[in-house]
Amino acid sequence: MKSDDIVPLIIDGLDVTTDVEFVFETNRFGGKPSPKKAFAQGASTETCLRAVESCAKAFPSWKRTDADQKRKLFQQLKHLLEVRGDDVREIIEEEINCSKLWSHINLQDSLGLIDEAAALVTSDALSGTIPITRNHNAPALVFKEPMGVILGIAPWNAPLILGFRAVVAPIAAGNTAILKGSELSPRVHYFIAQLFQDAGFPPGVLNFIMHRPQEASAAYETMISHPAVRKCNFTGSTPVGRLIASRAAASLKPVLLELGGKNFAIILDDADLDKSARLTLEGAFLNNGQICMSTDTVLVSRSVFAAYRKKLIVLMKKASSDISAVITTKSSERLRALINDAIAKGADITTGDDTDPSIIPATIVDNMIPSMDFYHAESFGPMLGLQIFDSISEATKIINDCPFGLSSAIFTRNHYRAMMIAKDLNVGAIHINGATVHDEPTIPHGGHGDSGWGRFGGSWGLDEFVHTKTIILNDYGGSAPVVRGTVVLDLHRMNKIIEVNHEYAYAVVEPGVSFFDLFEYIDKNDYNLWPSVPALGWGSVLGNVLERGFGYTPNGEHSQQQCGMEIVLSNGEIVRTGMWAKKDCTMGPLFKGY
Fold first, then answer.
1. What's the pLDDT tens digit per position in 222-232?
2. Cα–Cα distance, 64 to 77 (Å, whole number)
3. Which among 183, 258, 499, 566 is annotated as catalytic?
């Protein structure tokens, strides 16, 4: 960054300043004058087009970059984030007024997200398949291919995690991406884009833009309607998500939306009440309740309501000093309106430390009824509603009648009972004896209904940013390349697609051939099969047979099952290879001569 007072855009690997500028304030919380103002560069529609065209230009080359090279770049990205972790935590705490715990969570979860992307790049998550077809001489090859330019729109509330999440999976899948940063956390989102540049990602693989809030509609329209932009992912409010979905629909573009959440926790009559109170409190008030997965309402079995509430209030009073001002004055006004409406309609309100009028205190709302705005609305602040239920069906109906469906929690000592309830809930994730605020890089994350559609996380998140292509090989003889210079794969038993020198190869499984014969041949002729070996499931070049795809023969301790294949190289030559495993060995070495 050229100056701490200016946050530029990044396009084609270069910092970009524009004629459009808007002011954002740091330390704008607690009703005090901001001691510092900074200027974020706003993208005009012309600048948005420039960012898209830069990504489109970089896409063909990035699409063909070795998986191994991509993995190394993500590993370097993680290393730089570790080195600069303290710096970005300081920026997060200043920009969004969060606790040190929340900035720590942002950093650690971001590191995990990048780590998972590095692993997925060279896993079978991007491998194709060969489904069964009617005609064995006309096999179908199903490929996973990157889509093109992806627009990722990130929010401010978990700026590092969600900023990375908006672009890491698309880029790992072979796409190029535009990160549209939030005007409330521009320095954090700039930091992400700068980190990609410093890690060595080619110019145009990730571009970074921002715009003034009043220009959001024009910016989204410009980028989403551009032919090169093939998909958009958005994390934020449901109203804005609807707007983006409608714009994308006009251009027949898919979208991935993670939107608002009215998240419930259920306390059953056999729950550990100490644990339930602690985790529902954490789920409600972490980051001042400004998390899409925050617990808004706790449904408590009538028989334990009084005991649970007593424990919850004690914990809230102890933790209330951790509550700070919400992100904007507008947010504060909206929350006070929800509280006042609930009071006017008969709610009992219990608050934590209420000495600072600029801060919305931790607030518990009892006696909730459907006519209250808070009964239906996502608070996105330090508010927690309590409701009594008399039957499981009643609690389930309350949750499923809610238009949102992102996260829920169930507290009970009976896991079977919890599983039966969880299967009936229309939400994206249910946490049994855990807080509603929980996500990991390896698991799918997303919602139902007004909480959006699609999934971030793990291989599911990668699949969001690829499309499938089917190639059917009619009159396929099984031993010759389809087109000279192109290598195509046919692994009917192994069901994998590999690459040799960036070209697809086909292989026919057959016994009695040595892997090392193939490896020596490829090495001698300057072919490169190293990236292909993990894709086949063999582990490294020098170890580990395929763990699936063939069976072991039950003929004694030293029996073995051989598995071989032939690979047709791009010059038309056929090379054969194989491997063997002893009975009951899940991991065995490869041997020459079998």
1. 999 999 999 99
2. 20
3. 258
Q: Which of 416, 449, 410 is nearest to 433 (CA)?
A: 410
- At 66-114, the pLDDT tens digits run 889 999 999 999 999 999 999 999 999 989 989 999 999 999 999 999 9
Q: What is the DSSP string of 31-89?
A: TPPPSEEEEEEEP-HHHHHHHHHHHHHHHHHHHTS-HHHHHHHHHHHHHHHHHTHHHHH
Q: Give Cβ neighbours of residue 317 (< 8 Å, ≥ 6 apart).
A: 352
Sequence-separated (6 or more) residues with CB below 8 Å from residue 285: 294, 316, 319, 322, 323, 362, 382, 384
Distance, in Å, from the CA atom of 166 to the CA atom of 231, rounded to the nearest integer, reads: 12
Type of residue at 516? F
Q: Is 499 annotated as catalytic?
A: no
CA torsion sign, 185 to 189 to 190 to 195? positive
Structural domains present in the chain: 7-127+146-258 (3.40.605.10), 263-441 (3.40.309.10), 479-582 (no CATH)
Q: Which tens digits make up the pLDDT trace of 187-218?
A: 999 999 999 999 999 999 999 999 988 889 99
3-state helix, strand, coil in the chain (%, to 5): 40, 25, 40
Helix ranges restricted to H, 149-210? 159-172, 186-199
* Two structure tokens written together for 396: 């389930």
Length of the chain: 594
Backbone φ and ψ for 104, nearest 5 degrees, come out as -65, -45
Instruction: Please spell the DSSP secondary structure of 259-301, one letter per residue.
Output: ----EEEEE-TTS-HHHHHHHHHHHHHGGGG-STT-EEEEEEE
